[in-house]
C-alpha cells in the first residue's frame, strides 16, 4: 500500500490532537493513578474499533486494533504522567494544578498516540495483524511500564480465525526541546541509560563543635566519600562503557556548634550497560564503607534499583531510521552517535520485545534548540507543529510492519 497520504491524514487530525493535548496540559496528574487523564483518553477513543482493557494496578489503558488479515502485533507506546513542577511558561493553556506540569511532553505523546489510533483505524482493513496502543502512566520514576507488563500487557488473544498474534515489535516517541520541529533521532543498542538512586548514611559520634577530637565527625567523612566516588568513576570504570555518579544532596547537622551523629549522601548512578551498572554498585558500596572504617565511622549504603538501560534492537533501529527517512527526508533523520544519560521505563518493554525509542524534535524553527529550555524545565514549550510528524511516524511504523 502507499503511505504517501499519511501526513495529510495526520494534519487533518491536528485540531483533535491539539485539543486533547491542551486539555491534558491544563490538568496534569502524577504517578500511576491518573483518573482524569484516563477519562480524557477514553473519551478521545470513543467510536473507534478498539478492544480496550483498563488496567487495575495503574491507570494504564491497553487498546487493541485488529486488522483485516492475520499477522503479528505491533505495540505503540505513549506515556501520560506529568511532573511535580510549577509551570511558568505563560501559555494560554498553562497548568491549572499548582505544583504540577507536563514539562516532559507526555501530554503531546498521549495526544499523538490517540490520533494515531484514529488514523490507523481508518486503515484497519489494510493491516495484517494488530496494533496495541499502550497508554502508560508512571513513567516519571514510578515504573508504570513494568506494572502494565506484569498485568499482562503482552498477552494478546488470538486472532478471530484462531491464529496467534504475538507482539513482535514496539515503538515509542519522546518529544525533546533539543531538536527542532520536524527532526528525529535514535540509535541501535544502548539509547538511554539506566538510573539507580543511592543513599549513603555515615554514622559517627556527635558532640560539641569546639571539641572535634572527642567526636567522629561524619561530615568530612561524607565529603571524602563524595570525592572518592568521582575518582572511582575515572579509575574503575571503562571509559568506553561509561558511568555517571552524581551526588545531588548532602544533609547533616542542625546548627553551627554541634557535630552531628549522622551525615547523609544521596545521588544517582547512570550507566549504559548492565555489566557496568552492577560493577558501579559494588564499587560504590566498597568505597563508602572502607572510607568510613578508615576514620572509625560506619557507612550504610543503600541502592534503589531504577530503570534498566533502554536498549534499541539494532535491526529494528535501522528499520525505524529508514521509515523516518521515507517520511521526513535524509536531512531530518539522525543516528545518535552516543547514548543519552537520561533514563526511560520503556526499557522494560524493550527487554521483552524488539523495538525502538525515537526522539522527536519539538522546538519551533524560530528558536534555537541549543538554548531552548530543556525537558523538565518549568519554562519548556513544545511546538505543536511537531505533533502531526509524531502521528504520522506512529502510523507509518505500524503499517510498515503489518502490511
Describe this structure in words.
The protein has 403 residues and is α/β, with parallel strands linked by helices. Helix content is 33%, strand content 27%. It has helices at 6-12, 14-26, 35-45, 106-122, 144-150, 218-236, 274-294, 314-328, 346-350, 387-402; strands at 50-54, 61-66, 69-79, 128-136, 167-180, 184-186, 189-192, 194-203, 207-208, 243-252, 258-259, 262-271, 298-304, 310-312, 333-335, 355-363. The strands form four sheets. It has an eight-stranded mixed beta sheet with strand order 1-2-4-3-5-16-6-15, sandwiched between helices. α2 (14-26) runs antiparallel to α4, α4 packs across α10 (387-402) and α6 runs antiparallel to α7. The termini are close together.
Q: What's the arrangement of secondary structure elements?
A:
Elements: H1 6-12, H2 14-26, H3 35-45, E1 50-54, E2 61-66, E3 69-79, H4 106-122, E4 128-136, H5 144-150, E5 167-180, E6 184-186, E7 189-192, E8 194-203, E9 207-208, H6 218-236, E10 243-252, E11 258-259, E12 262-271, H7 274-294, E13 298-304, E14 310-312, H8 314-328, E15 333-335, H9 346-350, E16 355-363, H10 387-402
Parallel strand pairs: 3-4, 3-5, 5-16, 6-15
Antiparallel strand pairs: 1-2, 2-4, 6-16, 7-14, 8-12, 8-13, 9-11, 10-12
